[in-house]
UniProtKB/TrEMBL annotation:
Belongs to the EF-Ts family. The gene is tsf. One of its GO terms (molecular function) is translation elongation factor activity. This is Elongation factor Ts. It is found in: Cytoplasm. Residues 55-193 form the Translation elongation factor EFTs/EF1B dimerisation domain. The keyword rRNA-binding does not apply. Associates with the EF-Tu.GDP complex and induces the exchange of GDP to GTP. It remains bound to the aminoacyl-tRNA.EF-Tu.GTP complex up to the GTP hydrolysis stage on the ribosome. Residues 79-82 are annotated as: Involved in Mg(2+) ion dislocation from EF-Tu. Keywords: Cytoplasm, Elongation factor, Protein biosynthesis. Its main location: cytoplasm.
């Protein structure tokens, strides 16, 4: 038996509509944790559909850490309404704080110049000389993924929750807020550091 209290509790925890909460609890036999997972999976599927939509609204967020590191971030969404919500502003602040701490160089791998990727591949190939070609390719691919996770914002483990990447964090908020969210661009300044250094 699914009680109204259970439905209300799930709704308060997830922000999802009452009918969806009731369906999640029914589908999972009243198991609260499984219902949460069910909604997250459903939400992420919904978020994936939204990721193709145009995101031309949003905000510019600035964050200064101890007067030594400064970050400006452009975070885009679909409507001004969502951009003004506290949840969205907190997301922008969290990502800005992450940038200050983790010092990414790019938003995503597609922004890395081809010459930089080729140089990395050559270094990795030199490190595993003498191994069979198929093994070399796998090792190089693995090292390249690690390189992306160090240099690209969306691939980095979120400093406030290392079990989640920045990409996962954004997708979670897309599901919750119901709009596409895109990290537009960022700039990070560190006192005494010239642009282009890291």
């Amino acid at each position: 038996m699914i009680s109204a209290n259970m439905v209300m509790e799930l709704r308060e925890k997830t922000g999802v509509g009452m009918m969806d909460c009731k369906k999640a609890l029914t589908e999972t036999g009243g198991d609260f944790e499984k219902a949460l997972d069910y909604l997250r999976k459903k939400g992420l599927a919904t978020a994936a559909k939204k990721s193709g939509r145009k995101a031309s609204e949003g905000l510019i967020c600035s964050y200064i850490h101890m007067d030594k590191i400064g970050v400006m971030l452009e975070l885009n969404c679909e409507t001004d309404f969502v951009a003004k919500t506290d949840e969205y502003k907190i997301l922008a602040k969290d990502i800005s704080m992450h940038i200050a701490a983790a010092n990414p160089e790019y938003v995503e791998p597609s922004e890395i110049p081809a010459a930089v990727i080729e140089r990395e591949k050559e270094i990795y190939k030199d490190q595993v000389k003498g191994k069979p070609a198929n093994v070399v390719d796998k090792i190089v691919e693995g090292k390249l993924e690690k390189f992306y996770s160090e240099k690209c914002l969306v691939k980095q483990a979120f400093v406030k929750n290392p079990d989640q990447t920045i990409h996962d964090l954004v997708v979670e908020k897309i599901a919750k807020l119901g709009e596409n969210i895109v990290i537009g661009r960022f700039v990070r300044y560190q006192l005494g550091e010239k642009q282009g250094e890291s």
